[in-house]
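Posted in: Structural Biology > Protein-Ligand Complexes

Title: Requesting predicted complex, manganese (II) ion in pocket

I'd be grateful if someone could produce the 3D structure tokens for the following input. Sequence and ligand are given below.
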Amino acid sequence: MKPVIGITSRYSSKENKYNLPDAYTKAIQRNGGTPVVLPPLYNAECQQLYDLVDGVLFTGGPDVDPILYGEQPLPGQGWIEPMRDEFEFELAKIALAGPKPVLGICRGLQTLNAAAGGTLIQDIKSQVEKPIKHRQEAKAWHSTHHAFLDKGSKIHEIFGEDKVLCNSFHHQACKDPGKGFKVTGKASDGVIEVIEYDSSVWKLCVQWHPEHQDNPVMNKLFKAFVDACKK
Ligand code: MN
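-- Reply #1 --
Done. Output follows.
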């Protein structure tokens, strides 16, 4: 049996529609998992959904409401979707406490970090001194900056390298890691690109979008996640 991977999805309150780039489901499928999409809802049965899957992938999307991590919104903070925040925070708390692997991508990293009590940089351009370009204009399959990886970390073990070239589509980032998270990868400007949860279970978050990079390097990350979900 292939492991079933629950994938959080986007929601538009402007259009009353769910959507999810198919790159996520394709990345899970080609690396040995069976994807199922989890729609955000108010008062969702998050524990029941968690019980149905073998691992959870928290995906990219709009900004996390800064009120949820104890900050007032700064002018550079962007679009928020309150229903998705509520759903994903509850699911994140269950997933961080639970026995199943977790992968966070982009907003997924930010959601898991904030749900663990961490904080976010609301807008890199206005809050980071001399930032590099984190919102690339090149296509998503193309990598534009390096993430420098800590030796001895899970991410270093997966790639087997001190640095990895990644794509970048974010204006927010982890500021203070939440309880249980440690930083294991950064860009050259100090912006956090990888956090790992202190657990014997595979729980790791990246700030870039490996799902758009069907290449031997980024497939290693999905393969490691899906393989961990088999155990
Ligand atoms: Mn970046």
